[in-house]
Every structure is written in structure tokens, then in C-alpha cells.
């Protein structure tokens, strides 16, 4: 069998099995802690503007969700943003885009410092997005699916006046969204990684079939809808967008998701461009960092680390 990019997350039959999220703290309106204090007895950190730092890579689709939602809800002043270098070295994510290679607020050079400060025995992958508490230096959460939901529900006091309702209030629509989120995570968001990190032909083939079967369903769904749940942008649209925007630039070639390009699905392509042109979406996309991250960092898949020149990003705005 070929060597895996991430050995500990690869099954004996070559399937990619993503690690769990180690830090699952919540910043909650219900917290009984006072400002500046740590989590209450139920593990809930207090909502406090200016206290927490969201650490992201602009390349990472999971982090990209949190960047878009923070922007859509107008939380830029309440939750500050730290951006890591898209290229990890053997010590992981680093703050080499900042002066002195150090995050100016947290004072650290590597995200791993915050992980190990919080749990000295941590030996998993150090991942973004992560929310770090600037008072204690601890990682509150790297639980990416919950981070954006909590931005919507727990930070309402700091939302901008016309913030979109990313989570539907109506319970039927909410259930429909939750089911879509699950299917899209399994087959599309994580599906492209299941293709790219598979180390057996069979595991790759299954992931590829699941991915394109799901894209076919979504293509059909979008024939008479502006967004996945109708006329309003929802959390699920953000989650699908961050995979679609990387599709032709990275997943089609690097991860071998190549039955079709995104541009060859008429409805999905029109939908992705519609989102791209909304405030908060296209302006947060950095194709250069996206391509350099994947093609340079996954050197088991791309040992030469050559970054492809195409595709031309101007198709997104044409
Ligand atoms: N926290 C999740 C998802 C976030 C994630 O995978 N982020 C990637 C970047 S897209 C990362 O930080 N990877 C670090 C690494 O592989 O060492 C996980 O552990 O799989």
C-alpha cells in the first residue's frame, strides 16, 4: 500500500478517517462566569467582546467557514482574527506572516504552543480553525462545526443590525438544513479529502462515487432555487461554498476529483458564483494561499511541490 499522508487517520483498507476535535469548549450566553474568568462549572466560557482570538488559515475550508460567518454577522470587532502561514513546516501552523514571526496578540510563534499549553499531552494534528482565549492562552475550541453555529446563536448581542439569519428559526427548515449539512459533510466537504487521502483504489473509488452522486443531487436541487434552502443564504450554503470554491483549483487535480469540474455543473457553478459575489464570500477567498497550501503541504501526494498555475481565477467574476 502507498504511504498515507496522515498514517494515524488511515484505515487498514485505505480509507481516510478524520480525527475527532480535541477541544470542545463553548462560549455561551448561558455561562455564569464573570468577564475575565474561565469556563463555569458546566464548561461554558463567557461571551466577551475583544477577549477571544480566532486562528485561521485562509487556505483551509473548515476555517474559511468561520471567516465568512464572522464577516456576515459583523463580528469582526468582537472576535479578532489571526492568520497563519498557508505552508506548515514540521512544527505545524506558524505565524510567519506576522512581524517577528509571532502572533501580536497571543505572543506565540506556532499554534501548537497554545494546544500544548492547554493539554501538554496532546499528540494529534494541530488544526485550524481554533479559538484561543487571550486571558489564559488556552484553546477554547477547535470544534469547527460548532464554532460557526455559536457565532450565530451565542454572539447575537454583537451582530450587526442587518445580520442574516444563517440558522432557520422554523424547525422543519432547520431539520432539512441539518440533514443537508450532514450529507454535504460526508460526501462533499469531507468527501474530497476521502478521495485525496485514500491509499487504496477501492477506497478512492467509493469516495469518488459518493462525491459525484451527491453533487448530482445538489445540481438538481439548485435548478429552481437561489440557495440550498430557498431565497435566503443559510449556514449550509457557507459550508458548501468553501468546498466548491476550492474544487477546480485544488480538488479536481490534487485530490483526483475529476469526473467534472465545478464549471461543468451549470447550476452549481451559477450558485457558487452567486455566493462568491456576495459581501463576505469572494472577498475572503485567497486562491494563491489555497493552492500553495495544498500542493506544498501534502508532499506525499505531490512530492515535487510544484504549484499549478491555473485555473484562471477571473472566471469567478466574469
Ligand atoms: N479539526 C478538524 C478539521 C480542521 C482541519 O482539518 N484543518 C486542517 C487544515 S484544512 C488542519 O489544520 N490541518 C493540520 C494538519 O493536518 O496538521 C480535524 O482535525 O480534522
UniProtKB/TrEMBL annotation:
<dbReference type="InterPro" id="IPR036282">
    <property type="entry name" value="Glutathione-S-Trfase_C_sf"/>
</dbReference>
<dbReference type="InterPro" id="IPR010987">
    <property type="entry name" value="Glutathione-S-Trfase_C-like"/>
</dbReference>
<dbReference type="InterPro" id="IPR040079">
    <property type="entry name" value="Glutathione_S-Trfase"/>
</dbReference>
<feature type="site" description="Lowers pKa of active site Cys">
    <location>
        <position position="251"/>
    </location>
</feature>
<protein>
    <submittedName>
        <fullName>Putative glutathione S-transferase</fullName>
    </submittedName>
</protein>
<dbReference type="GO" id="GO:0005737">
    <property type="term" value="C:cytoplasm"/>
</dbReference>
<dbReference type="Pfam" id="PF13409">
    <property type="entry name" value="GST_N_2"/>
</dbReference>
<dbReference type="InterPro" id="IPR016639">
    <property type="entry name" value="GST_Omega/GSH"/>
</dbReference>
<dbReference type="GO" id="GO:0004364">
    <property type="term" value="F:glutathione transferase activity"/>
</dbReference>
<dbReference type="InterPro" id="IPR047047">
    <property type="entry name" value="GST_Omega-like_C"/>
</dbReference>
<dbReference type="Pfam" id="PF13410">
    <property type="entry name" value="GST_C_2"/>
</dbReference>
<feature type="region of interest" description="Disordered">
    <location>
        <begin position="1"/>
        <end position="44"/>
    </location>
</feature>
<feature type="compositionally biased region" description="Polar residues">
    <location>
        <begin position="1"/>
        <end position="14"/>
    </location>
</feature>
<feature type="binding site">
    <location>
        <position position="93"/>
    </location>
    <ligand>
        <name>glutathione</name>
    </ligand>
</feature>
<feature type="binding site">
    <location>
        <begin position="125"/>
        <end position="128"/>
    </location>
    <ligand>
        <name>glutathione</name>
    </ligand>
</feature>
<dbReference type="InterPro" id="IPR004045">
    <property type="entry name" value="Glutathione_S-Trfase_N"/>
</dbReference>
<dbReference type="InterPro" id="IPR036249">
    <property type="entry name" value="Thioredoxin-like_sf"/>
</dbReference>
<feature type="site" description="Lowers pKa of active site Cys">
    <location>
        <position position="294"/>
    </location>
</feature>
<keyword id="KW-0808">Transferase</keyword>
<feature type="active site" description="Nucleophile">
    <location>
        <position position="60"/>
    </location>
</feature>
<feature type="domain" description="GST C-terminal">
    <location>
        <begin position="170"/>
        <end position="294"/>
    </location>
</feature>
<feature type="active site" description="Proton donor/acceptor">
    <location>
        <position position="193"/>
    </location>
</feature>
Amino acid at each position: 500500500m502507498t504511504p498515507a499522508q496522515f498514517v494515524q487517520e488511515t484505515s487498514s483498507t485505505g480509507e481516510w478517517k478524520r480525527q475527532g476535535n480535541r477541544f470542545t469548549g463553548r462560549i455561551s450566553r448561558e455561562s455564569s462566569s464573570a468577564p475575565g474568568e474561565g469556563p463555569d462549572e458546566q464548561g461554558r466560557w463567557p461571551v466577551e467582546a475583544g477577549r477571544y482570538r480566532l486562528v485561521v488559515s485562509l487556505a483551509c475550508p473548515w476555517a474559511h467557514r468561520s471567516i465568512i460567518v464572522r464577516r456576515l454577522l459583523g463580528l469582526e470587532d468582537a472576535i479578532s482574527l489571526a492568520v497563519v502561514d498557508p505552508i506548515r513546516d514540521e512544527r505545524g501552523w506558524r505565524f510567519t506572516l506576522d512581524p517577528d514571526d509571532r502572533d501580536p496578540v497571543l505572543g506565540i510563534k506556532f499554534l501548537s504552543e497554545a494546544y500544548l499549553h492547554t493539554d501538554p499531552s496532546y499528540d494529534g494534528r494541530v488544526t485550524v480553525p481554533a479559538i484561543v482565549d487571550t486571558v489564559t492562552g488556552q484553546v477554547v475550541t477547535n470544534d469547527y462545526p460548532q464554532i460557526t453555529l455559536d457565532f450565530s446563536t451565542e454572539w447575537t448581542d454583537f451582530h450587526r443590525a442587518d445580520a442574516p439569519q444563517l440558522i432557520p428559526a422554523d424547525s422543519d427548515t432547520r431539520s432539512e438544513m441539518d440533514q443537508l449539512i450532514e450529507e454535504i459533510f460526508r460526501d462533499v466537504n469531507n468527501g474530497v479529502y476521502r478521495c485525496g487521502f485514500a491509499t487504496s483504489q477501492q477506497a478512492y473509488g467509493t469516495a469518488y462515487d459518493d462525491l459525484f452522486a451527491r453533487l448530482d443531487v445538489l445540481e438538481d436541487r439548485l435548478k429552481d432555487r437561489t440557495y440550498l434552502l430557498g431565497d435566503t443564504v443559510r449556514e449550509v450554503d457557507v459550508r458548501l461554498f468553501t468546498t466548491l470554491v476550492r474544487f477546480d483549483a485544488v480538488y479536481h487535480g490534487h485530490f483526483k476529483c475529476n469526473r467534472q469540474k465545478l464549471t461543468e455543473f451549470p447550476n452549481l457553478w451559477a450558485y457558487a458564483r452567486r455566493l462568491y459575489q456576495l459581501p463576505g464570500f469572494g472577498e475572503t477567498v485567497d486562491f494563491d494561499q489555497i493552492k500553495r497550501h495544498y500542493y506544498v503541504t501534502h508532499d506525499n501526494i505531490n512530492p515535487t511541490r510544484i504549484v499549478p498555475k491555473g485555473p484562471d481565477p477571473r472566471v469567478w467574476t466574469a
